[in-house]
Write a structure and sequence with these properties.
7-stranded mixed sheet; 4-stranded mixed sheet; 17 helices; 19% strand
Amino acid sequence: MQSRTRKLIGAVLAVSLLAAAAAAFGGCSSDAGGDTPADEGTPKPGGALVFPLPGEPVSIEPLNAQDASGLQVAHQVFQGLTKWVRNDDGVLVTEPDIAVSWESADAQTWVFHLREDVTFQPPVSRAVTAQDFLDSWTRVTDPENQSYVAYILAPIEGLDDRGYQTDPEQGLTGVTVVDDQTLQVTLRYPFADFPATLGHPVAAVTPVDYIDEVGAKVFARAPVGTGAYAVQSWRHKEEIRLVKNPTYWDAEQPGWVDAVQLPIYDDVDAMWEDFQAGRLDCSQVPVEQLPAATASPGAAGDGRTAGSWPAAAVYLVGINMTDPTLGASLDLRKALSQSAAAQAVVDEVGLGVDEVAGGYVPPGIPGYKDAQNPYPYDPEGAAAVVTTMGGAPTLNYWYDVSDDHRRIGETLAAGWAGAGLKVKPSGYEWGTFLEKLSRGDKGSGSQLFRIAWIADYPSMDAFLYPLFQSDQSPTGSYTFYSNAGVDELLQKARATMDAQQRQNLYAQAEKLILTDMPALPLYSYRYHRVVGPRLHGFAVDPMGTTDMRSVWIE
């Protein structure tokens, strides 16, 4: 369902969380639902929020919003048929947004019913109709526009795996405008979690007639959506400013603050310095500052608090299932899992900010189940398995060169050595690393390797299908894993409309994959933030986004 290009970028982004986003602020309890800063008092309207962005966005409009900064802005400005809402348990669920409801009898043909009171922000200021969604998605999936995130719409009939129209002259054949408030979407295959994918900004509605009038470049600098906040200005590499949308349709949650200032930072050190000086309302924390910063936030009476939330991202050790040594020996894979020192990796390399994973799906995702791994940490048990095997040959562990990945590899190798397993870590430049992994079934020598994954939408499918389905695993996880039983369960889950039944099927598939152990689950990432005394109602959802409508300023 996803293009190989985006999968690789997903891995890059997930890895960066360790050093930048996830390793931001520790010292809070880390329950599955997330630990939110203390929030007392009644919300008050008005004021300007100062919210830092961790880098210059690639884009802030649906066509190409893809990085953390761009997605953060796009989620405030644009809306789609559905939205993601973090519930009281910290789980990111899919709810209606511009669509009031939807239905499907077979998970393949979907009918969405739109609200009648939604308008585009000024200067467009006209009603949104179903035709606008067709026009928006047609623009995103037009091969000439080279959208980097179009693959999220790839399930729609008439698109290829990259999310591009197979015949641009025919257009987006799987989408039909029934009337102004009704949109019918036909998919290439049954996919019950399709509404969840539509919470991504790439599926948001845009005024394509206005884009044609002012030009794509002008629109990219000052895009117009339907959200609670509108773009006032974007000074590249300096800041983005948002203001409250005076014509926003959702009277129940219009947003408390009048404006949002989003200064852009190249590094966490500068962000942390500005926060300490009182110029920001929240911040990440440099890794070297963690011990001091986490000791007692707010001890000086400055009102600072800290929060920790699960991220939809995992760090794994992949196993090349075509390798004659590892692929043929479940006992060896079991011993590797039982002696993988995940807690030591979290404590020694990540300074305790993440949490050991019990499976491939992290907390915060609907259907998540803890302790799925049938071979949990048990170094003595692993040593017994190795003894029974009569020992094991030296194995290779590959990673892309960085200090964190090197230290993770060395920590894992030490743990494996304690169980009698000899593993040699080796680092490669990113391009070489990927090229070598891609030849895993052609005698390239890949055996063990690090891989990380960020989901694009909140679903178990977003982890299990692209990583472990037989046709996807050669480029999704580089494990070349194949199991007909897993494929059948995943296909059945995709076609199951009942959410609980669907999640149970995905959990069964996850358990079966873990029993085969084509990848060792190491840890799930967490987002950590320190929050200033003015800011209330702050939270980070598993996709790394803060809903600006929920926060308020003292």
